[in-house]
Amino acid sequence: MSVTIKDVARRAGVSPSTVSRVISKHPRISKETAERVTRVMEELGYHPNSMAKGLVSKATYILGVILPRPAEELFQNYFFHEVLRGILAQANRSGYDLLIASGSSESDELETVKRLVRGRRVDGIILLSSKTKDPLIHFLNEVGFPFVIIGRSPDFPDAPTVDNDNVQAAYDATRHLINQGHERIGFVSGPQELTVSQDRLTGYRQAMLEAGLSISEDWIVEGEFLQETGYRAMSMLMNLPERPTALVVIDDIVAFGVLHGLNELGYSVPQDMCLVGFNNISLSEHTSPPLTSVDIGTYQIGYMTAQTLIKTISKEPLHQTRKIIPHRLIVRGSSVK
Amino acid sequence: MSVTIKDVARRAGVSPSTVSRVISKHPRISKETAERVTRVMEELGYHPNSMAKGLVSKATYILGVILPRPAEELFQNYFFHEVLRGILAQANRSGYDLLIASGSSESDELETVKRLVRGRRVDGIILLSSKTKDPLIHFLNEVGFPFVIIGRSPDFPDAPTVDNDNVQAAYDATRHLINQGHERIGFVSGPQELTVSQDRLTGYRQAMLEAGLSISEDWIVEGEFLQETGYRAMSMLMNLPERPTALVVIDDIVAFGVLHGLNELGYSVPQDMCLVGFNNISLSEHTSPPLTSVDIGTYQIGYMTAQTLIKTISKEPLHQTRKIIPHRLIVRGSSVK
DNA sequence: TCCCTCCGTGCAATCGTTACCACACAAATG
DNA sequence: CATTTGTGTGGTAACGATTGCACGGAGGGA
């Protein structure tokens, strides 16, 4: 049916082994033969059968990406998309394809990963979210399969990860608000079990403590990565007797919800409330007022993750198992009067 | 190394053929054997090697998704993401995985597709964008490889596609504005070569014509799927001597740019300008004012596309090669005074 | 009782590559 | 000139599954 290595061999007047050697650039092949074979391959439109190749070489040149489950409602659209672009770019550069998968429940997800690993469908796995007590990490760690986590996992300190210094990032964001003269600063968080929520909350507390400012626990609202969370948080916070004058918000999307709610109630940003978000998604530049946000180098996270995974697969030593991508506070209208 | 069908066979006291038959639910296998083998498979944590399987069966159970090139700057983040979720859901339900790929240039992209097809890396391909004179469609059509286009391709009317009735959708959006009493209505478009731009423009013109309203060509601005386009279009349109009082905007993202620009210049929506967008992304509910938008059933598009492709792969006849997903106008504050 | 049919299972070829081993021949060494 | 070293290539056995063919035994009909 389709053109195989044998067809090329016959047409070029050599053996299949020789063709295989030409493809893998074996040193002991004569220049003339190599050229002739290459020409024939192009003539016939030959491409090696990936499965035959994979069967013998035990490599698929596919990286698996496990998406967070939509069911958990913590699907960070915009963040995820940028990360994926970064992963894809680096994977392609290194000759890898990307297989994306998800599960509809935790056990389903684990089953999927087992299938991918045991069925040799991918050479390595990228986990896009990291929570504490993650059974996926546990499994991958146990069977010794190459994987990289985006974020960090306190339960498996040796697992390779790519992450921001989220504590420092939140510290910087909070510090920025303190520098503007704010004393009552609130924090709108994501789901507790995610390390990113925990870390940013820590950074916020640190900055407040260091500045000698006290935190009312009413100022800390937990939710999900959705505008609804921001909207709801806003109405709770604005009804407090002693309400904050500024907010650090876990994600720009959530901050949009806050902004919208404030607008609706006739409050003005930054006069009545200052806002700082995270992720610096492209829309943040185009709200009214534009949103101050911590740029966490989302694309670069993806890029670096793929690179780390590929190194792990080819058994190159990693000089550091925990890579930190630098962040940068982008100050815009939502936080300066 | 890893557990194979032979290990299972040995442990269960049967031949590898029998194990294979148990897996594929061959009818002529005794119930007892089937149960015993199944138990052993679970005990050993056996998963069939996907490449050995694929080599002989000539099926990979992988669908390829070709992303639009970022270089073209027509990467519709939010649209794409929802579609992908739909594709993924349906693919998983049918036992398929998803491989995503893109190219950095047109020829690179074609090369990637050739590699996927000829190298038997995927069983079928989904094209996420459809433009006129698309070399990918030409190639896939020529070699007779299963594929489905999201959108439509005027050059290949027989190719299976999943699409909206974009002419009608834009007609409805425009009609809605006309019903509100507007007479000078503008249109902010995406790249000309995309069929979606062409179709929506057609629908807009149709509605205007039918209502006996004349269109000034100054009211039609072409750009890309970016906020910048909206921002720029807005400033051009507001400087016209006879400026429109309402706009149909090709995508919500672009409409955000318009909205932001208007806010910045102190114009108010909907008093000074009414807006209708497309795609009804989740943020549209949370702008100030909330954005009226045509919901095109993005998730369902993905879902249906995967379903159609899988049918094509298994050579089931399609009762219709061109599937239309219904749209729905969601009226919000940006278009009613 | 004999033959035919059907059921459950094993044997062996096959899918398209890779990689080890062998071999012919040329060049270099003593 | 004999021997070693090296170069370019072919033959063949894997890799881990599927599948057509064959075969022994049980059951049913004549």
CATH architectural label of the largest domain in chain A: 3-Layer(aba) Sandwich
Q: Please tell me the overall pLDDT of chain A.
A: 93
User: What is the multimeric organization of the chains shown?
Assistant: homodimer
Largest interface by residue count? Answer: A-B, 54 and 54 residues
Treating each run of at least 4 consecutive H or I residues as one helix, how many helices of chain A? 12
**Unreliable stretches of chain A:** none
What percent strand of chain A?
Answer: 5-15%
Which class of the largest domain in chain A in CATH terms? Alpha Beta
Structural class of chain A: alpha/beta
Distance from N terminus to C terminus of chain A (CA atoms, Å) equals 70 Å
Number of domains of chain A: 3
The backbone outline of chain A, from C-alpha atoms, is elongated
Nearest-angstrom radius of gyration of chain A? 25 Å
